[in-house]
Specification:
Elements: H1 2-22, E1 28-33, E2 36-41, E3 44-49, E4 59-63, E5 67-72, E6 75-80, E7 88-91, E8 97-100, E9 109-114, E10 117-123, E11 130-133, H2 134-139, E12 148-154, E13 157-171, E14 174-184, E15 192-194, H3 196-199, E16 202-207, E17 210-215
Parallel strand pairs: 1-7, 10-15, 11-14
Antiparallel strand pairs: 1-2, 2-3, 4-5, 5-6, 7-8, 8-17, 9-10, 9-13, 12-13, 13-14, 16-17
Length: about 220
């Protein structure tokens, strides 16, 4: 019996150590909503509603579009968007808007949906349309053999892309139907470009380093 208790104690110590290894690192705010927030920790993204506890014992006490009051490591903290890489603030207003902070390399990254499937975008006002690689298009279930041939200038030279129509594109609270997109052969761009076929339907402005996208 004593050996069994000792073994259980040892297993408990090992599991605690492994948990610390898995969840080591500092949580970061990815997005803020009224009553809900998105966090990242040790490479994993997750969403918590007020009162919920997530990975690493992170507990969301209260979230607004400006900050999140959390309990973590035995203490309470109030975190704002400035803690997050690729942080996004979605405000549910009469005209929905997103407030996007630049990432480590200066670009504006944001998560969205194409026909209900998750995708990561880089905001690119220099791209005529939403632009995806053939590999990404296949993952999203988009047609890669249909559409219309279009010439596209890339960093590697001119290639022939396929222009298609996406039924629905969602980014935060911004939701647009029937949006033009271009599919490029191969695996480039590595991250989908949120181009002007979507952005031209919005009001776009800068507030210091923050890029604001707002529905018209």
């Amino acid at each position: 019996m004593r050996a069994s208790v000792h073994g259980a104690w040892l297993i408990g110590i090992l599991l605690t150590g492994l948990a610390g290894m898995v969840w080591a690192g500092e949580p970061r705010v990815q997005a803020l909503f009224p009553g809900k927030a998105m966090f990242s920790l040790a490479g994993e993204q997750f969403v918590l509603s007020d009162g919920e506890t997530g990975p690493g014992g992170l507990r969301l006490l209260r979230a607004t579009s400006q900050s999140a009051l959390v309990e973590y490591g035995g203490r309470q903290h109030e975190w704002s968007l400035e803690r997050g890489r690729f942080a996004v603030d979605y405000t549910a207003a009469a005209r929905p808007e997103m407030r996007i902070l630049p990432g480590p390399e200066g670009g504006y990254g944001v998560s969205g949906l194409i026909n209900g499937r998750s995708v990561r975008f880089i905001v690119d006002t220099g791209a005529t349309a939403i632009t995806l690689s053939e590999i990404e298009a296949l993952r999203l279930g988009l047609p890669v053999t249909g559409g219309v041939d279009v010439p596209v200038e890339t960093a590697s030279g001119r290639v022939t892309g396929r222009r298609i129509l996406i039924e629905r594109v969602q980014v935060g609270g911004l939701d647009e139907p029937r949006v033009d997109a271009v599919i490029l052969p191969g695996d480039r761009p590595a991250t989908a470009l949120l181009g002007m076929s979507f952005l031209s339907r919005l009001n776009i402005r800068s507030e210091g380093p923050i890029l604001v996208l707002q529905a018209r």
